[in-house]
């Protein structure tokens, strides 16, 4: 009789403990909205959630990189547009200087205006990006364009790449040489020679003007080509941003199916568990209150 009573108490206690744990788990699901509380609850689901966490962390970095890349490309695009405008103005002034009726003084005045454009172009070439680095591909602390021995030279390009996705990166600018040189045309030195010819009225001034006009026209085409390349990269960044946003949305949906609890299901499960637990407790209380006389009846 004593052994049977001990077994009865032990079984009832274990059952109520299990039901209480199940009820607590259901209440935790309701309060957190998550059905996966510990990796041990479902190892496969926990591994999926861990992978989602890793992807979310990677995407947070890529999102920042995409924003930075878009900003730098936009800055390069805008600056190239300004460079193109300045070259076009220089071409118009060269065309004006080609007019044979201009006096030497008037040509010298045109030369002064073109010199200002040349200097503005050098300033644009040596612009700094949003990070404080040379915009057109020079290494940190150096200028992309320098005047040496009366001629303009270009620092070796060191264009940075920014990772924007797994296995993908994008160059956020171009080297200054790519902007100002096309074939045998070197825009800044073409302008330099033109300024000298117009201001000093020495040498074959008319020939220098004609050569400059041809090369400035080619420079315009080259700048437009470079700007189109930058624009294509901007479009790529925008496309990748859209793909990333869609991937994040899809991942959040998958995570929800793996991790999130159904409120209605959780409440129903809690109610059912509590009903069974209360019934078990009532039965236990009733049975433990019976006297020996009750057992013998």
UniProtKB/TrEMBL annotation:
The alphabetical list of record keywords is: Bacterial flagellum, Cell projection, Cilium, Flagellum
Give the signal peptide as a residue range, or say none if absent. none
Q: What would be one Gene Ontology cellular-component term for the protein? A: bacterial-type flagellum
Q: Where in the cell is it found?
A: Bacterial flagellum; Secreted
Question: Coiled-coil segments, which residues?
Answer: none
| A Pfam family per the record | Flagellin_N
One Gene Ontology MF term: structural molecule activity
Main location (coarse class): other
InterPro entries cross-referenced by the UniProt entry: Flagellin, Flagellin_N
Flagellin N-terminal domain location: 3-129
| Keyword Ribosomal protein on entry | no
What residue ranges are annotated as transmembrane?
A: none
Q: Which PANTHER family does its entry note?
A: FLAGELLAR HOOK-ASSOCIATED PROTEIN 3, FLAGELLIN
**According to its UniProt record, which protein family does this protein belong to?**
Belongs to the bacterial flagellin family.
Protein name listed in UniProt: Flagellar hook-associated protein 3 FlgL
């Amino acid at each position: 009789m004593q052994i049977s009573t001990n077994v009865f108490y032990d079984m009832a206690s274990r059952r109520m403990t299990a039901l209480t744990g199940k009820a607590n788990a259901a209440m935790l699901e309701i309060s957190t909205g998550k059905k996966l509380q510990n990796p041990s609850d479902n190892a496969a689901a926990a591994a999926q959630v861990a992978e989602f966490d890793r992807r979310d962390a990677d995407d947070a970095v890529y999102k920042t990189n995409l924003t930075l890349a878009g900003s730098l490309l936009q800055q390069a695009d805008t600056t190239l547009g300004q460079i193109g405008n300045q070259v076009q103005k220089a071409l118009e002034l060269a065309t004006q200087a080609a007019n044979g009726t201009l006096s030497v003084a008037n040509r010298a005045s045109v030369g002064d205006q073109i010199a200002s454009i040349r200097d503005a172009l050098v300033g644009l070439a040596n612009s700094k990006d949003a990070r404080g680095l040379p915009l057109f591909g020079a290494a940190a602390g150096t200028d992309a364009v320098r005047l040496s021995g009366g001629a303009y030279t270009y620092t070796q390009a060191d264009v940075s790449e920014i990772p924007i996705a797994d296995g993908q990166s994008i160059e956020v600018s171009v080297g200054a040489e790519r902007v100002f040189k096309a074939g045998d045309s070197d825009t800044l030195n073409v302008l330099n020679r033109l300024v000298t010819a117009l201001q000093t009225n020495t040498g074959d001034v008319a020939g220098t003007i004609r050569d400059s006009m041809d090369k400035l026209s080619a420079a315009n085409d080259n700048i437009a080509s470079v700007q189109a390349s930058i624009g294509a990269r901007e479009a790529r960044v925008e496309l990748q941003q859209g793909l990333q946003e869609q991937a994040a949305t899809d991942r959040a949906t998958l995570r929800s199916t793996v991790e999130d609890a159904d409120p209605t299901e959780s409440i129903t499960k809690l109610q059912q568990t509590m009903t069974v637990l209360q019934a078990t407790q009532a039965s236990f209380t009733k049975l433990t209150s019976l006297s020996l006389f009750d057992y013998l009846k």
